[in-house]
Amino acid sequence: MTDYNDGEWHGWNGGDCPVHKKSKVECVYTDNQRSITRQAIAFVWSATSLYRPVAFRVIKEHREPREWWLTGGCGFDVWSTEEDAIAADHGPLIHVREVIE
Asked: Model's pTM, two decimal places?
């Protein structure tokens, strides 16, 4: 799978949006080769669209914050889902979510 979040220009022939829809991308269009910068969700990426990007680059990658759950008293166990943490029943449950600025 190609990592498009490298800041380089990538040609585009259509298809599903190749990056997270909240990533900020710059696109060059088929109509007059003008450049537009917006969130990826604002563009029509389909090959059937007459007005679609022919090239793009990611200006700012959107990352969802990571989250996990901790259980335990003196020592902690780490769980990737709340359901797993609850099922383990190892004491108090703490939900941790990464802060991204």
From this structure: 0.65
